[in-house]
UniProtKB/TrEMBL annotation:
GO terms for cellular component: cytosol. It comes from Candidatus Dactylopiibacterium carminicum. It is an enzyme of class 2 (transferase). PANTHER family: DNA POLYMERASE III SUBUNIT EPSILON (PTHR30231), EXODEOXYRIBONUCLEASE 10 (PTHR30231:SF37). DNA polymerase III contains a core (composed of alpha, epsilon and theta chains) that associates with a tau subunit. This core dimerizes to form the POLIII' complex. PolIII' associates with the gamma complex (composed of gamma, delta, delta', psi and chi chains) and with the beta chain to form the complete DNA polymerase III complex. One of its GO terms (biological process) is nucleotide-excision repair. This is DNA-directed DNA polymerase. SUPFAM superfamilies: Ribonuclease H-like. CDD domains: DEDDh (cd06127), GIY-YIG_UvrC_Cho (cd10434). Pfam families: RNase_T. GO terms for molecular function: 3'-5' exonuclease activity; DNA binding; DNA-directed DNA polymerase activity. It catalyses: DNA(n) + a 2'-deoxyribonucleoside 5'-triphosphate = DNA(n+1) + diphosphate. DNA polymerase III is a complex, multichain enzyme responsible for most of the replicative synthesis in bacteria. The epsilon subunit contain the editing function and is a proofreading 3'-5' exonuclease. Its EC number is 2.7.7.7.
Length: 454
C-alpha cells in the first residue's frame, strides 16, 4: 500500500475541551510514501495557567511556555505543513478539533481529511485489546525519550505506520485504512465539554443549546462511547443529526455503576426539568368496624414503615378503582363491602348474580373478607427484601470510582462517594419518603442484579 502525503500531528494541551483549553505544544511530521520529508515542533503560549496535574503528566510547565509564541504567530506555519495532506493523529478527533478551534480563533476556516491511528490499529490488529499509544510502544518495542511530549509521540505514530506496511497484506491494510479514514466533509464539530476526558464508566449526561436550554437528559453504560458516538456516528438518524447540530455544550456525571447512573439521570430530570415524582396509590385494609373493608391511600411522600399492609401501586385513583372492579367481577366480591359503591345496602352486582350476597346477609362477612384477601394477594406490594437499610456498593475499576447507595423500605436515602460521607449518611439518615419512580427503578435493578443481596 502506498501512503499518500501525511501530516502526522501531536498536540499537548491544558485539558481536554478544545473550547475552554488551549494548546501548549505542537509537532508535525510531513511524510510522503515511506519518506519523512519535514519535521517541526514548537511550544505554544496558551494564555492560561497549565493545571498542576497536566504539568506533572506531560512535563510542560508554565515557565517553559512563558516566552513561547502564541498560536496566532504559528498559524501560518502550521497551515503550510498541513496543506494538501491527510491529517494523522492518535485519537485524531482530539487533535483535529483542538486545531480547528485554534484556527477559528484566528479567523481561519480549516479542514482536512483525517486518519485516526487508534482506529487504524483496532482494524489492523483486532486481536489486541488495547490500542493506546502506550500499548503500541509496548507491542512494537519502541524506545521513546519523552512520553507525552508532542514530537516524540508523533514519531511513535510514524514508526507504527512504517512497521504496519510490510507485515500486513494489501487487502488488510486497505480495509484498516477505510475504517480509520474520514473525508473532511464528514468530520463532526464537537460541542463544549470535556468529551475527550469522559471515562468509559456508566454515567448521566445533559445536552444544552447555545442559550443553555436543556435539549436532552440521558444515561449510558459507557459514557465516553455513547456520548462521543452521538456526535460521530455517520449513520445516525435524521433526528439525531439535527439534535447533534444544535448541541452547544455537554455536561456529564460519571458514576461507579449503572444504578448510580439511573439515580443521577432521575435527579437531573427532577432538578433541570422540574419533573415531579409520580403519584402512587394503594388499597389498604380499613380499621375494624369501618363501613367498607378497603380504603384508597396515597403512597407518594409517605413513610412505608407506617403503611401496614397495602395492595398495589397505582399511578392514579382511576387505575386503582378499575383494577379493584375487575377483581370484584372475577371473585364475585361485593362492591359495597369493598368501598366501590357508597351508601350501604345491596350492591348492583347482587341483583345480577355477580355477588355472593354479603350485602344482603346471604354470605357471612368473614367468608367474603377471606375471599377478598385471597384476591388481593396478587396486588400485594413486593416486600422489602432486607432487615433495615440496604447498602448497594458499586465500583468501576477503570476510573477507580466507588459509590454506595443507601435505601430503606424502597426509599432512597442518598449516595456516598467515600467512607466519611457514608458514615454521616448512616448516622443521620434523612426521613423515609416513598417515591414510586425510585421503587420501580430499584425493583428492576434488584431483579437484574445477581450480587446486590449476596
Amino acid at each position: 500500500m502506498q501512503l499518500p502525503r501525511l501530516a502526522i500531528v501531536d498536540l499537548e494541551t491544558t485539558g481536554a475541551d478544545p473550547n475552554r483549553d488551549r494548546i501548549t505544544e505542537i509537532a508535525i511530521l510531513v511524510t510522503e510514501g515511506e519518506r519523512l520529508i519535514e519535521q517541526w515542533s514548537s511550544l505554544v503560549q496558551p494564555g492560561m495557567p497549565i493545571p498542576a496535574r497536566i504539568q506533572t503528566l506531560i512535563g510542560i510547565t508554565d515557565e517553559m511556555v512563558a516566552q513561547a509564541p502564541e498560536f496566532p504567530a504559528l498559524a501560518e506555519q502550521v497551515q503550510r505543513l498541513l496543506a494538501d495532506a491527510v491529517f494523522v493523529a492518535h485519537n485524531a478527533r482530539f487533535d483535529y478539533n483542538f486545531l480547528r478551534t485554534a484556527f477559528e480563533r484566528c479567523g481561519v476556516a480549516w479542514q482536512a481529511p483525517v486518519l485516526c491511528t487508534v482506529k487504524f490499529s483496532r482494524a489492523l490488529d483486532p486481536e489486541h485489546p488495547r490500542h493506546g499509544l502506550d500499548a503500541l510502544i509496548a507491542r512494537g518495542g519502541y524506545e521513546i525519550q519523552s512520553r507525552h511530549r508532542a514530537l516524540d509521540d508523533a514519531l511513535i505514530v510514524w514508526r507504527f505506520l512504517q512497521d504496519a506496511l510490510p507485515r500486513a497484506s494489501e487487502e488488510r491494510l486497505q480495509k484498516a485504512w477505510d475504517k480509520a479514514f474520514s473525508p473532511a466533509s464528514q468530520l463532526p464539530r464537537m460541542p463544549r465539554g470535556n468529551l475527550e476526558g469522559l471515562p468509559d464508566s456508566p454515567g448521566a449526561y445533559v445536552f444544552r443549546s447555545a442559550t443553555g436550554q436543556v435539549l436532552e437528559i440521558g444515561r449510558a453504560r459507557d459514557l465516553r462511547s455513547q456520548v462521543l458516538g452521538f456526535f460521530t456516528n455517520l449513520r445516525a438518524s435524521a433526528r439525531q443529526r439535527k439534535l447533534a447540530e444544535t448541541v452547544h455544550e455537554v455536561e456529564s456525571w460519571p458514576c461507579a455503576g449503572e444504578l448510580g447512573a439511573q439515580l443521577q439521570e432521575l435527579s437531573l430530570q427532577r432538578s433541570l426539568r422540574g419533573q415531579e415524582a409520580s403519584r402512587a396509590y394503594a388499597w389498604a385494609l380499613a380499621a375494624p368496624g369501618a363501613e367498607s373493608r378497603l380504603q384508597l391511600i396515597e403512597l407518594t411522600g409517605s413513610d412505608p414503615v407506617h403503611w401496614g399492609e397495602v395492595f398495589g401501586s397505582f399511578r392514579g385513583e382511576r387505575e386503582a378503582r378499575t383494577t379493584l372492579q375487575e377483581l370484584a367481577r372475577q371473585h364475585r366480591l361485593c362492591a359495597t363491602r369493598i368501598g366501590l359503591e357508597q351508601g350501604g345496602g345491596p350492591c348492583q352486582a347482587v341483583h345480577l348474580g355477580r355477588c355472593h350476597g354479603v350485602c344482603i346477609g346471604r354470605e357471612a362477612e368473614a367468608l367474603h373478607d377471606a375471599r377478598l384477601l385471597q384476591a388481593l394477594t396478587l396486588l400485594r406490594m413486593k416486600a422489602w427484601p432486607v432487615t433495615g437499610v440496604l447498602q448497594v456498593r458499586e465500583h468501576h475499576e477503570g476510573s477507580e470510582r466507588s459509590q454506595t447507595h443507601i435505601f430503606d423500605h424502597w426509599c432512597w436515602l442518598g449516595s456516598a462517594d467515600d467512607e466519611a460521607v457514608l458514615g454521616e449518611l448512616l448516622q443521620a439518615p434523612p426521613s423515609r419518603r416513598f417515591d414510586p419512580d425510585i421503587q420501580r427503578l430499584l425493583v428492576r435493578w434488584l431483579a437484574a442484579s445477581t450480587s446486590a443481596l449476596a
